[in-house]
Design goal:
mainly alpha; Leucine-rich Repeat Variant; 153 residues
Length: 153
């Protein structure tokens, strides 16, 4: 009877001495991966990157610099698998061209594809114009750096 208690205490001490042993292997691997990725090279803006963060940063950088040459790549990013990339792409396009052409980054894919076809048609036909550097005052509310959602008043 005494040996059962002793072995139970020993098991408890072993568990408390190595708390990481209780972590499920998948969770442990995920945490290690996050640590390794977090310690890597900082993300760089790049619309063609395999990393969503870099694509989103690339879209934002293109919009902030009013880079009209980036418009075709931004239109391609409107069909990105990552919602943040789509959002920053349409905000950049709106800043550069002054329009969204009915695109909503959170809409269903079929609706997004219809709007993307409009964007591609507008590029082919030359219908797009460069937006002024400052939007009309009544088009935005609480705007700090141009990336907040536009609000109709």
């Amino acid at each position: 009877m005494g040996s059962g208690r002793t072995s139970a205490r020993r098991v408890d001490r072993e568990k408390s001495a190595r708390p990481w042993k209780r972590v499920r292997p998948r969770v442990g691997r995920a945490l290690c991966l996050l640590f390794v990725l977090g310690c890597g090279v900082p993300a760089r803006p790049n619309l063609e990157s395999t990393m969503p963060l870099e694509r989103a940063m690339g879209a934002k950088a293109a919009g902030e610099s009013n880079d009209r040459r980036a418009v075709p790549s931004l239109v391609d990013r409107l069909d990105d698998e990552d919602a943040a990339v789509r959002m920053y792409s349409i905000l950049a396009l709106e800043r550069i061209t002054g329009t969204r052409l009915g695109y909503d980054y959170a809409a269903r894919r079929e609706q997004r594809l219809a709007a993307i076809r409009q964007w591609r048609y507008a590029i082919r036909t030359g219908e797009l114009t460069v937006a002024s550097s400052q939007p009309a005052a009544d088009q935005t509310r609480g705007r700090t750096n141009g990336w907040e959602e536009r609000v109709a008043e």
